[in-house]
Design brief:
Elements: H1 4-21, H2 29-36, H3 42-77, H4 89-102, H5 112-123, H6 125-131, H7 138-161, H8 166-177, H9 185-203, H10 206-212, H11 216-221, H12 226-248, H13 254-262, H14 270-294, H15 303-322
């Protein structure tokens, strides 16, 4: 569908603009225009430019990385249930952030939480490459990711179990639920470069993913370097998802469902799904973040909770409708 990508880009841009306009404080259009021009109430400018604008940018950036990561892994592993969490990279990024929170490093420098998350994701490359070094099989990589994810989950549980006080445990739990609330341009500067590198590495693997759809032997016969493809895929996922999780916390399900929503609108080849999944992921996450602000709740609803609650039944319905095509 030739109009798919332009339409997704248009709706993603509109969702970003709507994200800037929506919030607890009602701001009229004239006040918004004045703030953009550098005039008007300084409080309005602070709300729009210092609070809502970074949040909107991060919604687009994080969503794009999760969507592209899910599409790339589903193509590489040839598994419709694959997403970044399946390799344990999301879990190790979360563990890195939990370590920073547990040892109160964020009390001194707030940027240490996202920094530790990025470091945790990148360090995940070492055991993944070591455990899968002797085989090219995608199953080997999946099993290595499951082992890594289990270990990281145990580390997070240990931190919660040994939390020195209830407030520390609450802070860790709140971060793990995922949110884009109260983010600043410092977070954008952390996430955006990581996501840009991750997307560049993943989007460049379209031809290799198409070749892998014929199987590993078929891909080799077409001249695909499986080791190089695996390294670039893992590096792209680790750096990009690490940067995304670093600022948003653990937000699941976006990387799983977005490729399935996009795939029926394409020729179903992995390369055709990559870029539309990135844009659709940006649209989906930004829209979900807008919904979080609109749902009336006594306590702020976390973004990761909403994506799971809405995504699971929608995905099950889509799964039942599309299962014969996989």
């Amino acid at each position: 569908m030739s109009l798919l990508l332009p339409l997704l880009l248009m709706f993603a841009l509109l969702s970003g603009l709507l994200s800037i306009a929506v919030g607890p404080a009602h701001i009229g259009l004239p006040a918004m225009v004045a703030a953009i021009e550098g005039k008007g109430d300084p409080i309005v400018r602070a709300i729009l430019l210092d609070l809502r604008l970074p949040r909107a940018i991060l919604g687009l950036v994080v969503g794009a990385m999760l969507g592209a990561g899910g599409a790339a892994l589903q193509g590489y592993l040839r598994n419709p249930l694959a997403e970044p969490a399946i390799l344990g990279i999301s879990s190790t990024a979360a563990l890195g952030a939990v370590i920073a929170i547990y040892f109160k490093l964020a009390d001194t420098y707030s940027w240490l939480v996202p920094l530790f998350a990025v470091i945790g994701a990148v360090l995940a490359l070492i055991p993944l490459l070591a455990l899968s070094a002797r085989g090219e099989s995608a199953l080997t990589l999946i099993l290595a990711g499951v082992a890594l994810s289990t270990l990281a989950g145990a580390g997070i549980s240990l931190a919660l179990n040994l939390a020195p006080n209830p407030f520390a445990a609450m802070e860790i739990t709140s971060w793990l639920l995922g949110s884009l609330e109260d983010r600043s341009f410092k977070d954008v500067l952390i996430a955006a470069p990581c996501v840009a590198i991750g997307l560049a590495l993943l989007l460049g693997q379209g031809r290799a993913l198409d070749a892998l759809s014929l199987g590993e032997d078929g891909a080799r016969s077409l001249g695909t370097d499986l080791r190089r493809t695996r390294l670039q895929m893992l590096a792209g996922i680790a750096i990009g998802v690490g940067g995304a999780v670093a600022v948003s916390g653990a937000i699941g399900f976006v990387g799983l469902i977005v490729p399935h929503l996009v795939r029926p609108l394409t020729d179903r080849s992995p390369s055709a799904v990559l870029l539309p999944s990135a844009v659709a992921g940006a649209l989906l996450l930004t829209t979900a973040d807008i919904a979080v602000r609109l749902v009336p709740t006594a306590m702020p609803l976390k973004l990761g909770v909403l994506t799971a609650l809405v995504g699971v039944p929608f995905f099950v319905r889509h799964l039942l409708r599309e299962r014969r095509l996989w």
